[in-house]
UniProtKB/TrEMBL annotation:
CDD domains: Ubl_SNRNP25. Pfam families: Ubiquitin_4 (PF18036). GO terms for cellular component: U12-type spliceosomal complex. It comes from Varanus komodoensis. PROSITE patterns: UBIQUITIN_2. InterPro entries: SNRNP25, SNRNP25_ubiquitin, Ubiquitin-like_dom, Ubiquitin-like_domsf. The lineage of its organism: Eukaryota, Metazoa, Chordata, Craniata, Vertebrata. This is Small nuclear ribonucleoprotein U11/U12 subunit 25. Residues 57-149 form the Ubiquitin-like domain. GO terms for biological process: mRNA splicing, via spliceosome.
Amino acid sequence: MAAAEAELAEAAHAQVLARWQAGLARLVRDPLLCDLPAQVTPEEIGSQVALEYGQAMTVRVRRADAPEDPMPVVVVQNASVLDLKKAIQRFVQLKQEREGGIQHISWRYVWRTYSLTFGAEKLTDDRKKLREYGIRNRDEVNFIKKLRK
């Protein structure tokens, strides 16, 4: 009896999941959201809507090992450097889940070894707002290896 109930619950879950994915696929066909991937998350939809209403901005993060392919990271307008770092982590995590590859990154190591720069200035203070560094929508931040002291 318990096995039959579990099987029924699993089938119901699969149906709900299929409906959810079909609904998201319809949403992604909307012109406002057409840039989003097919396996979009609710968080990504919210970010895209916030961008459209001017509540968020895109910061392009350029890595030294992939200069031709900057990462378009979305953050709220009054984001801090720490918010940008968290958004980069989430962007990379979602990209890895979709494409496969490395499953775990030690972000503590990454932030100890690499830094973000805008122009010639390092973004060293996690509490400082991006706008205090002069970063605006569609600006480019570089992700570079720290030099040893």
